[in-house]
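Dear support,

I submitted the protein below through the web form. The confirmation email said the job was done, but the results page showed an empty box. After a refresh the structure appeared. I'm attaching both so you can tell me whether what I see now is the final result or a partial one.
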Amino acid sequence: AVDMMAEFQAGVTAALRSWSALRTAVETDWGGAESHAKAEDLRTNILSQFDTSGKPKMEQEELEDNLADYMEEEFSVVLEDGSERQLADVIHRMYDACARGDVTLCRQVVANAQTVVSSFPAQKAVVQTEGEMDEDDDDDNMGSGVLASTPSTAAASYASEGLFGPAPTAKPQANMPPPRQLGDAAPEKPQVEVDDDGFAPVAPKKGRKGRQT
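What the results page shows now:
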């Protein structure tokens, strides 16, 4: 039997890998040392909004807004290419299709992700859901290859892989806040303590570059 949720999770994984804004933000550490972890948290948060009920917990427009907010707050990326709308659209279409027992779109997104990823950054497309695949295109090392003729165990394996390869080894930091959930408001800035002389320590500025894509 086909595992619809595994196929959907593989499709979401492929769609995120194909999203040039997220890939660039992670590969250039726009989210700091935790960039890989933030991308993984985004995937986890998205998947938590879609379960086996066939009814998403988050509507498409809300998902669009939260994708844009997450990229701005966590990676200082201001999306101006409408890519969050395309991503939210394909995620909802994959989910609806899986609810009907159709995994064709999910497997197509996974297959096309190989082409998009291999040509990045020249390929600016967010997710390719139409058109034929180049049969001579070699599988890259980011995924498990085309899932069109493989069982759902391959989809589950693909969905369990890191989005952009293994995260760089970093020393664990103490007192780190919990990962931000999709839809949560941006964390409030901590209150500044004033010493006895009335001076407040000046924290180094973490400039919001407001990168535009």
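Response: this is the final, complete result; the empty box was a page-load delay. Confidence is low (pLDDT under 50) at residues 122-150, 203-209.
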